[in-house]
UniProtKB/TrEMBL annotation:
Bilayer topology term: Peripheral membrane protein
Gene3D superfamilies, A to Z: CheC-like (3.40.1550.10), SpoA-like (2.30.330.10)
Example of a GO cellular component annotation carried by this entry: plasma membrane
Protein name: Flagellar motor switch protein FliM
Species this chain originates from: Alteribacter keqinensis
Domain Flagellar motor switch protein FliN-like C-terminal: 254-323
Compartmental location: Bacterial flagellum basal body; Cell membrane
Length: 330
């Protein structure tokens, strides 16, 4: 990304050229020279900016879905949002993971390969404590999960993967199958150490506990889905998803929607004292004249003008005019 000069730096540069301290021709020669930039082949950027933006949008949607699911299941305050999206070598990611954490390995069938969800112990133990009837405190455990705790947390994470599947449905269909639950990252070899992965970090708060949920997606696994993360293609696909019969069904259901319609006969203003003294057979004078059209509202919006009358034995109004949007009503 090119550096942007401030106004002060621009003025100083122009002043230096005008006084002869800096030669404009020399600047042109430097610009024409070939620039050399250091490139780290171990940290190859294989995800384009557009694909990273697509992954960010997708996981923002997942965060909203997961917030709703967790709030309902844990019956407590849950807040989840995307904190960062980075691409780095798998070896660098696995070194950054704490020695004691909760790692969920799952296969995105029918795709080949495996994906990884890493849940900070503060978050995982708060979930577990809440499911077991506690207040959702982040308990410190050095001995790891018991067999019963592992079973409970596995069932919870399986439901999380169903929500993850729903978030990915706009890009591609896959059925996440949970393979294993691991606590030590050193025992886990997802892909080769130099393979580029994208790491999506979700900042998570459950009650008073907070921490990160990280999704590690190897490039080699989701490579064939990456072209679909383009904004233009994504919008095109979503438009193509609706079939003709679905559009007809949608229109049919919209036409069945109930709209409340009310007719305003007139208005009046009285004092609190007059209101308190109202009794049977009292008459309230309205400000509506008999030759002035009545106001017809659809919901709370003025929509038509009408004149009162009768239809058989029922009171009715006849529409005389339509109120255009933005038109003032006196």
């Amino acid at each position: 990304m090119a550096d942007v000069l401030s106004q002060g730096e621009i003025d100083a540069l122009l002043s230096a050229i005008s006084t002869g301290e800096m030669d404009a021709d020399e600047l042109k020669r430097e610009e024409a020279e070939r620039k050399v930039r250091t490139y780290d082949f171990k940290r190859a950027l294989r995800f384009s900016k557009d694909q990273v933006r697509g992954l960010t949008r997708l996981h923002e949607n997942f965060s909203r879905l997961l917030t709703t699911q967790m709030s309902a299941q844990l019956r407590t305050y849950v807040q989840i949002h995307v904190a960062s999206v980075d691409q780095l070598p798998y070896e660098e990611f696995i070194r950054s993971v704490p020695k004691r954490t909760i790692l969920t390995v799952f296969e995105p069938a029918p795709m080949d390969g495996r994906l990884l969800m890493e849940v900070n112990p503060n978050v995982a133990y708060a979930m577990l404590d809440r499911l077991l009837g506690g207040k959702g405190e982040a308990l410190s455990k050095s001995e790891g999960l018991t067999e019963i705790e592992t079973k409970i947390i596995t069932q919870l994470f399986q439901k999380t993967l169903y929500t993850y599947q729903e978030a990915w449905s706009s890009v591609g269909d896959f059925d996440p199958v949970m393979e294993e639950l691991e606590e030590n990252p050193q025992f886990l070899q997802l892909v080769s150490p130099n393979e580029t992965v994208v790491v999506i970090s979700l900042e998570t708060s459950i009650g008073e506990a907070s921490g990160m949920i990280n999704f590690c997606l190897p490039h080699v696994v989701i490579e064939h889905l990456l072209p679909k993360l383009s904004v233009h293609l994504w919008m095109q696909e979503k438009q193509k998803e609706r079939l003709p019969f679905e559009e007809a069904s949608l229109k049919k259901n919209v036409k069945k929607a109930v709209l409340p319609i009310s007719v305003e006969l007139g208005r009046s203003s009285i004092t609190i004292q007059e209101f308190l003294q109202l009794d049977k057979m009292d008459v309230i004078e309205l400000d509506q004249k008999t030759d002035t059209p009545l106001l017809v509202k659809v919901g709370s919006e003025p929509k038509y003008l009408a004149q009162p009358g009768k239809l058989k034995k029922n009171l009715a109004v006849q529409i005389t005019d339509e109120i255009k949007e933005g038109e003032d009503i006196d």
